[in-house]
Amino acid sequence: MATPTFDQLLEAGCHFGHLKRKWNPAMAPYIFMERNGIHIIDLYKTAAKIEEASNALRQIAKSGKKVLFVATKKQAKEAIANKAKEVNMPYVIERWPGGMLTNFPTIRKAVKKMTTIDKMLKDGTFDNLSKREKLQITRQRAKLEKNLGSIADLGRLPSALFVVDVMKEHIAVAEAKRLGIPVFAIVDTNSNPEDVDFVIPANDDASKSIEVILDAVCGAMAEGLEERKVEKIDTPEDKEDDAAGKRRRVRRNEERAAAPAEASVEVTEEVKEAE
Predict the structure, then answer these.
(1) Domains of the chain
(2) Is-above-0.85 flag for pTM?
(3) Which is more confidently placed, 24 or 254?
(4) Counting CB atoms within 10 angstroms of each CB, which of 16, 24, 58, 82 has the fewest?
(5) CB within 8 A of 129, min separation 6: which ones?
(6) Which residues, 6 or more positions from 43, have their beta carbon under 8 angstroms from its beta carbon?
């Protein structure tokens, strides 16, 4: 896992905050200075926070859990979609469907509806419908794909949320907080970091700034997934040990099963001798 250097963060423009008059006082610990009416973010703290968040996300990926990426702003959509696909994680880049986390079963029903339509297309049921019904179903399928297609594989609530711009995605952050789901977020100087568990202070408006941070965290998650794969692969020695262990267990079970029978034979013989 490679944490971005100070120079890389500087070149990407991660240090540019918002106008001084738009700042949130809770972001004061992450602000280095003010220049020409604009707050400058302390990039040393940004690098430290990226490393902290990357380590946590790596462990989540290693354990086989899902992280939901959320970014509906234009500058972040493409970057989020590409990076989330690389690590096989769900993402939301269109409008956040209200209640997606707090009312998750309803969202799953909508996803199942999309699956049902796909089955209709495969088994020929769709061909037997009228032209009007076909048009309605096609439009419904396209709408579902646009809004929920990227979370079709999310069978249960995610273990964490990664958000770009907590002000724009405040509903998603509020739902995650209500359910106790940890939130990782790129937080600018105009935002409130108190609702975020892993704060990454940086410019959340520049596409380069977002990309350099995503490269780091998704790179760490990819490492976690690789470690998980390696741990799942059994070596030949492990397989031999497992086979030997099974043989020993079978032998013990046979001995236990035979023990009561031998004891009953001895008792029967003693009774006969007594008679």
Answers:
(1) 6-93+157-232 (3.40.50.10490), 102-153 (1.10.287.610)
(2) no
(3) 24
(4) 82
(5) 137
(6) 6, 9, 10, 14, 15, 32
